[in-house]
Amino acid sequence: MKKKGELTTQQIVLLIVIIMSFIVILYFLFRLGFGESSEKEICHNSVVMKGNPVLSKGDVSLNCQRTYVCLTKDGSCEAMTNPIIKKVGDNPEETYRVLADEMADCWWMFGEGGVDYVGSKAKEANYCSICAQLAFDDSMKEIGEFEAGKINQDELYAYLAETPLSENKENYLEYLFGTKDIELLKADISGNINNSEGIDTFGAINLEESYFVMMGITSEIGNTYKWIGRIVEGVGVISLFIPGINVVTSAIVIGAGVGTVIGGPKIAGLFEPKIVALTREGDGIDNEFMVPTIIEAKSETFELLNCKDIVSLA
User: Fold this and answer.
1) Pick from 24, 113, 63, 79: which is nearest to 211 by CA?
2) 295, exposed or middle or buried, with CB in 10 Å at 0-12, 13-18, 19+?
3) What would the 3-class secondary structure string for the chain be?
4) Which long-range CB contacts under 8 A does 47-54 form with residues at least 24 apart?
5) What pLDDT digit, counting tens, does each position of 145-183 carry?
6) Taking the model in full, what pTM does it have?
7) What's the rounded Cα separation, in Å, for the pair 261 and 264?
8) CA torsion, points 91, 297, 68, 158, in degrees to nearest 10?
């Protein structure tokens, strides 16, 4: 005879099924980015609190975790252990969308250029944030546009200029850089370089390498201090004066074309000529920001950004 309160075998089996189903559902939620969204929201909230003088009296710490993302066509990923999988199809725009979303998320996480999250007590320096680390599965080369093993970043930026973040919203380029005209921006960068060729490309992403989606902020100390300071070896900072575009203030460029700026063609020739990143003034604050960009991880280009500190966690 079954005592009152005892579970029958059928009820136990049903309970086990419910628990297992719940675990499976949680697993797929995290695989689809639920956990990723939570981490980004936690980061955003800590940035806002850090930048609020009332809330940050207790020295609020940033809680920004780098995410690890693998782009793949077939769903596998040999390039990274336990990443967030982003599966894309044959249309290259699906890949551009993933990259664009990572850049936009990074900008949002760190306050969209309107939050000083390093504080006035910080030393005069550049502070970088690595929002995501990207890897590319071998199957990405099966996409016709990328069969040579590279993603043309000029095509990515063209996508940013043409595609809204979501329905009835501004496009990615305007959200990030304050302009819809990437060609005008590139032309002005090239025109401000003292040579006949100029630099009018953002270069390419090598699918064999790992990349950072990163941005940065300068401390507000010293009103004349801008991103990278002035010029560091191998990198030029080109000031931009584009009619109708007030928020983009400079471009970080490397390679031939900045040789006359940084000390001669010997240094410039070490790097493939390209636009590394764009910067913009803070919105209502004295800081300047390097807008989210995609840079090869642990590369010479990354080192030349002269980051004083990485404010996100690995």
Assistant:
1) 79
2) buried
3) CCCCCCCCHHHHHHHHHHHHHHHHHHHHHHHCCHHHHHHHHHHHHHHHHHHCCCHHHHCCCCCCECEEEEEECCCCCCCCCCCEEEECCCCHHHHHHHHHHHHHHHHHHCHHHCCCCCCCCCCCCEEEEEEEEEEECHHHHHCHHHCCCEEEHHHHHHHHHHCECCCCCCEHHHHHHCCCCHHHHHHHHHHCCCCCCCCCCCCEEECCCCEEEEEEEECCCCCCCCCCCCCECCEEEEECCECCECCEEEEEEECCCCHHHHCCHHHHCCCCCEEEEEEEECCCCCCEEEEEEEEECCCHHHHHCCEEEECCEC
4) 47/109, 47/110, 47/111, 47/115, 47/117, 48/111, 48/115, 50/115, 50/117, 50/119, 51/111, 51/115, 51/116, 51/117
5) 999 999 999 999 999 999 999 877 899 999 998 888 888
6) 0.80
7) 7
8) -30
Tokens of 42: 């936690």
Q: What is the pLDDT of residues 194-227, one digit of tens each?
A: 554 567 889 999 999 999 999 998 876 544 344 4
CB of 95 within 8 A of CB of 72? no
Whole-angstrom Cα distance, residue 174 to residue 180? 5
Residue that the structure tokens 């004295």 belong to: 286
Closest CA to 125 of 311, 307, 310, 313: 307
Cα–Cα distance for residue pair 311/225, rounded to 1 Å: 20
Inter-residue contact 153 to 202 (CB < 8 Å): yes
Question: In this structure, what token pair is assigned to residue 50?
Answer: 């850090």
* Cβ neighbours around 4 below 10 Å, total: 5
Give the whole-angstrom CA distance, residue 124 versus residue 30. 39
